[in-house]
């Protein structure tokens, strides 16, 4: 990083939301807080760009995966630039839609809740379930899953779902690490070149470290859904 304190790009306010995991009510409440936070005030000159970044794991575990994808695949915050990242759960759902053999891992890790949000009577057979889910999934939900980015850069910040393999340049990172890595990244004190904002590894409160900040605060386990707000050198939080 160019300084000891990371900076967001001039003229932008960034809103990064941690792992949603099908928690539709908390997402709606947090989006309303973001609308209010971004509303023009006496000090606003009208030239600021507001950017929404969701860090992946939009689906699974919580009861409202279908509703979450409906919200985010539309225009959740009109006038905002929106960037949505791929989490390991989003990837598992996408893979299951293509290949039922990939379903065992997904269904054991919260995919069953996603199926129930789309299907009144989910089948037991992975093949039948995959076929039924493909039929029930609106085209824009499928497009949303297919279009998710692996990472995003804004100023001194790098946004990614899980983290990075320490010491490996971003362009050479294994996509599987970007959505699955834990300890090698979480325990590293290396400077990654940019300050990393990530989810994936739930903590009771935002996990602030000198080289990163984790904002998966366990919404699907009864914790908050957290939004990190970045502007200039400021870092602050909204929670639902």
Description of the molecule:
With 240 residues, this protein is of the alpha/beta class. It contains 8 helices and 10 strands. The protein has a 5-stranded mixed beta sheet with strand order 3-2-1-9-10, with helices on one face. Strands 4-5-6-8-7 form a 5-stranded mixed beta sheet, with no helix packed on it. A hairpin with a 2-residue loop joins strand 9 (226-231) and strand 10. It starts with 11 loop residues before the first strand and ends with a strand.
Keywords:
240 residues; alpha/beta; Purple Acid Phosphatase, chain A, domain 2; five-stranded mixed sheet; 8 helices; 10 strands; globular
Please outline the major beta sheet.
5 strands, mixed
Strand order of the largest sheet: 3-2-1-9-10
β-strand amount: 15-25%
Helical fraction = 25-40%
Mean pLDDT: 94
User: Globular, elongated, flat, extended or rod-shaped: what is the shape?
Assistant: globular
State the end-to-end CA separation. Answer: 31 Å
Q: How does CATH name the architecture?
A: 4-Layer Sandwich
CATH topology, anyone? Purple Acid Phosphatase, chain A, domain 2
Low-confidence runs of at least 5 consecutive residues = none
How many helices? The count is: 8
Q: What is the CATH domain class?
A: Alpha Beta
Name the CATH superfamily assignment: Metallo-dependent phosphatases
Q: Report the radius of gyration as a whole number of Å.
A: 18 Å
Multimer state: single chain
N-to-C SSE string, H for helix and E for strand: EHEHEHHHHEEHHEEEEE
Q: What's the number of extended β-strand segments?
A: 10
Structural class: alpha/beta
Number of domains: 1
């Amino acid at each position: 990083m160019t300084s000891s304190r990371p900076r967001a790009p001039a003229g932008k306010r960034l809103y990064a939301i941690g792992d949603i995991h099908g928690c539709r009510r908390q997402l709606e409440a947090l989006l309303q807080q973001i609308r209010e936070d971004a509303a023009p005030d006496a000090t606003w000159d009208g030239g600021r760009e507001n950017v929404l970044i969701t860090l992946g794991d939009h689906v699974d575990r919580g009861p409202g995966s279908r509703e979450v994808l409906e919200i985010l695949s539309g225009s959740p915050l009109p006038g905002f630039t929106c960037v949505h990242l791929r989490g390991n759960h989003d990837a598992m759902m996408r893979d299951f839609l293509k290949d039922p053999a990939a379903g065992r891992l997904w269904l054991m890790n919260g995919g069953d809740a996603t199926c129930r949000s789309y299907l009144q009577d989910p089948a037991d057979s992975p093949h039948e379930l995959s076929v039924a889910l493909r039929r029930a999934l609106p085209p824009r939900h499928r497009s949303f899953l297919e279009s998710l980015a692996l990472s995003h850069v804004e100023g001194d910040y790098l946004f990614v779902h899980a983290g990075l393999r320490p010491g490996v340049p971003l362009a050479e990172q294994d996509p599987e690490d970007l959505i699955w890595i834990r300890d090698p990244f979480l325990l590293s004190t290396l400077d990654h070149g940019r300050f990393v904002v990530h989810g994936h590894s739930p903590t009771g409160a935002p996990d602030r470290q000198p080289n990163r900040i984790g904002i998966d605060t366990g919404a699907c386990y009864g914790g908050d859904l957290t939004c990190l707000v970045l502007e200039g050198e400021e870092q602050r939080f909204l929670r639902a």
